[in-house]
Amino acid sequence: MKSLQIEVFICRSDNFGVLLHCPETGETASIDAPELDPIVKAAEKRGWTITHVFTTHHHGDHVEANLALKEKYGCEIIGPRNEAAAIPGIDRTVGDGDEFTFGKRPVRVIETPGHTAGHICYYLPEDMILFAADTLFALGCGRLFERSALDMWHSLQKLAELPDETIVYFGHEYTLSNARFAVTIDPENARLRSRAELIEMQRKRGDFTIPTTIGFEKETNPFLRAGEPDIRRTLGMEGATNDEVFAEIRKRKDTF
Ligand SMILES: [Fe+2]
């Protein structure tokens, strides 16, 4: 089986557009639909025709181009059952544990409530690729708009259980701000400090920081590391539960 091909580009100001293409079947999925023109340009550059949209959640900067893409390509829009009413043009609803086929391989749906109530991620186990959108970012996680810190902590734990080698595509280029924040929470973490230095250079050059991996995030992303003694000591929360520590880290990032 041939490998899937991926095209990454910027939409709006800091949304990632991602196209996933199967060279055998010719199928192409747009992961969310943040903005029509950059998506169409990216598809045309590669000579791909969009057959699917994998919607992760209902926010406008992820669904804005749904209807226009559908009109242009007649593509099928797949999206979260728990917020289907807010997804323009949705054709097929999916929920936790559902699997469907794209490019002759399974795509598994992982529900990750927190950023929104119905947010889902798309995981391709055979290719070890995760589309995490606004649940897990490089060195960050999504803001809690519709669910509690406890819910988001559980959602992030589900993603952390995937194999370390899993390649993670995420929804926004927020990595520089996330890195500057992360070193305030986990200052003794040498891997994080060197990663933060690299990110400063990457962003100065205008390079993207996507993708990351689950293993790298587990080593460096404070939002996955609420159980670490060093972080608890830094926050003065040695006796707190993991989700309380996570909630404190999330609260501090909101005002960073
Ligand atoms: Fe969002």
UniProtKB/TrEMBL annotation:
<dbReference type="InterPro" id="IPR001279">
    <property type="entry name" value="Metallo-B-lactamas"/>
</dbReference>
<feature type="binding site">
    <location>
        <position position="57"/>
    </location>
    <ligand>
        <name>Zn(2+) 1</name>
    </ligand>
</feature>
<feature type="binding site">
    <location>
        <position position="59"/>
    </location>
    <ligand>
        <name>Zn(2+) 1</name>
    </ligand>
</feature>
<keyword id="KW-0862">Zinc</keyword>
<keyword id="KW-0479">Metal-binding</keyword>
<dbReference type="Pfam" id="PF16123">
    <property type="entry name" value="HAGH_C"/>
</dbReference>
<feature type="binding site">
    <location>
        <position position="134"/>
    </location>
    <ligand>
        <name>Zn(2+) 1</name>
    </ligand>
</feature>
<feature type="binding site">
    <location>
        <position position="134"/>
    </location>
    <ligand>
        <name>Zn(2+) 2</name>
    </ligand>
</feature>
<feature type="domain" description="Metallo-beta-lactamase">
    <location>
        <begin position="14"/>
        <end position="172"/>
    </location>
</feature>
<feature type="binding site">
    <location>
        <position position="172"/>
    </location>
    <ligand>
        <name>Zn(2+) 2</name>
    </ligand>
</feature>
<dbReference type="InterPro" id="IPR035680">
    <property type="entry name" value="Clx_II_MBL"/>
</dbReference>
<comment type="pathway">
    <text>Secondary metabolite metabolism; methylglyoxal degradation; (R)-lactate from methylglyoxal: step 2/2.</text>
</comment>
<feature type="binding site">
    <location>
        <position position="61"/>
    </location>
    <ligand>
        <name>Zn(2+) 2</name>
    </ligand>
</feature>
<dbReference type="Pfam" id="PF00753">
    <property type="entry name" value="Lactamase_B"/>
</dbReference>
<keyword id="KW-0378">Hydrolase</keyword>
<protein>
    <recommendedName>
        <fullName>Hydroxyacylglutathione hydrolase</fullName>
        <ecNumber>3.1.2.6</ecNumber>
    </recommendedName>
</protein>
<feature type="binding site">
    <location>
        <position position="62"/>
    </location>
    <ligand>
        <name>Zn(2+) 2</name>
    </ligand>
</feature>
<feature type="binding site">
    <location>
        <position position="115"/>
    </location>
    <ligand>
        <name>Zn(2+) 1</name>
    </ligand>
</feature>
<dbReference type="InterPro" id="IPR050110">
    <property type="entry name" value="Glyoxalase_II_hydrolase"/>
</dbReference>
<dbReference type="GO" id="GO:0004416">
    <property type="term" value="F:hydroxyacylglutathione hydrolase activity"/>
</dbReference>
<dbReference type="InterPro" id="IPR032282">
    <property type="entry name" value="HAGH_C"/>
</dbReference>
<dbReference type="InterPro" id="IPR017782">
    <property type="entry name" value="Hydroxyacylglutathione_Hdrlase"/>
</dbReference>
<comment type="subunit">
    <text>Monomer.</text>
</comment>
<comment type="function">
    <text>Thiolesterase that catalyzes the hydrolysis of S-D-lactoyl-glutathione to form glutathione and D-lactic acid.</text>
</comment>
<comment type="similarity">
    <text>Belongs to the metallo-beta-lactamase superfamily. Glyoxalase II family.</text>
</comment>
<dbReference type="InterPro" id="IPR036866">
    <property type="entry name" value="RibonucZ/Hydroxyglut_hydro"/>
</dbReference>
